[in-house]
Amino acid sequence: MSPKQRQAQLFASSNRRRRFVVGEIEAQCRRRGLWPLIGTDEVGRGPLAGPVVAAAVILRDRARLPGLDDSKLLTEDAREALIPKIERHALAFSVVEGPVELIDEINILQASLWAMKTAVESVWQQLLERRETED
Known about the structure:
Order of helices and strands: HHEEHEHH
Strand order of the largest sheet: 1-2-3
Structural class: alpha+beta
Radius of gyration: 16 Å
Number of helices: 5
Number of strands: 3
Strand content: 15-25%
């Protein structure tokens, strides 16, 4: 079974009624040989106007960031305080804005997916460039 198929199987078999536990998915993926992981999330799908913004990050192996959880459960101050910590523990990260014009053209969901995909691709490219400079 390919890594993509194993990843799809992992997420399909997870019980969506359970509360997400930070690190649980990472641990399951690591046990199945799916590592490293690039995490991504978006903001801006709720507002009636403005861009959608997505970020992607790959953290150093076994990085521990107390307080890192669902951003919607955190206060603005707590989210802001995590930014430098995430940046210090990141191997690579990217923030991408899907402009209003793109939302108007392809809809908010597609613009969100585009922004997340673009952010993930940027993180992957950064990792490849880093590997080339280290070799």
